[in-house]
Inverse folding.
């Protein structure tokens, strides 16, 4: 009797119709990256808006089964050319809350009238418990403001301004009041300030100055 252990085992050759061949189909040239083996990368347009985090807080909501915790993010975006917006949103984690707040900020963009790097005129805004004051400043003085007002004014593109927080210290309320102030300038005053700025920029031609006559000294006798 032949020993079963000494039996020659023949190699299994997979044909095109066997299950082994169907399990591992032949690979196409170029693989999964397309023709030439290069990976296709979608070109996304560059974002011109800068983002800043104004406030990040953990909030809870009491439900029937217990407390539900979420994160609340307050974001401000701006292109430093006169467009700025603020957004507040909640999410299960920090990244989701930031993404939602940035999307809301894009929907709430406002245009700020900037004249010679400053605001058109002085303005006082009272929004619930937040009270702020903002007035124009001469060129080169910089942004004289603190807290969230400085962040909003920098992203709006204002270079010279004097601002003051007179009410609460709540960051969210002060940011909302700042956006409200930047969107509350009087159109007539803005037009007048732009017209006066244009007249200042016009350079009048200089008149030809007459050369002074040089008197000859009399000959000494």
């Amino acid at each position: 009797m032949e020993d079963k252990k000494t039996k020659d085992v023949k190699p299994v050759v997979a044909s095109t119709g066997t299950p082994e061949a169907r399990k591992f189909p032949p690979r196409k040239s170029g693989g999964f990256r397309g023709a030439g083996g290069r990976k296709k990368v979608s070109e996304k347009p560059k974002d011109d808006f800068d983002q800043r985090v104004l406030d990040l807080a953990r909030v809870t909501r009491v439900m029937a089964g217990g407390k539900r915790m979420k994160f609340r993010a307050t974001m401000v975006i701006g292109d430093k050319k006169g467009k700025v917006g603020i957004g507040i949103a909640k999410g299960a984690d920090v990244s989701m809350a930031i993404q939602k707040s940035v999307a809301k900020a894009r929907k709430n963009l406002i245009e700020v009238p900037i004249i010679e790097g400053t605001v058109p005129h002085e303005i006082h805004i009272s929004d619930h418990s937040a009270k702020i004051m903002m007035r124009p400043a001469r060129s080169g003085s910089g942004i004289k403001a603190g807290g969230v007002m400085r962040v909003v004014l920098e992203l709006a593109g204002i270079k010279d301004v004097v601002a003051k927080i007179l009410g609460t210290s709540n960051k969210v309320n002060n940011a909302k009041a700042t956006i409200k102030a930047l969107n509350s300038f009087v159109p007539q005053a803005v037009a007048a300030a732009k017209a006066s700025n244009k007249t200042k920029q016009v350079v009048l031609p200089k008149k030809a100055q007459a050369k002074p006559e040089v008197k000859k000294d009399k000959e000494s006798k």
Notes: The radius of gyration is 35 Å.
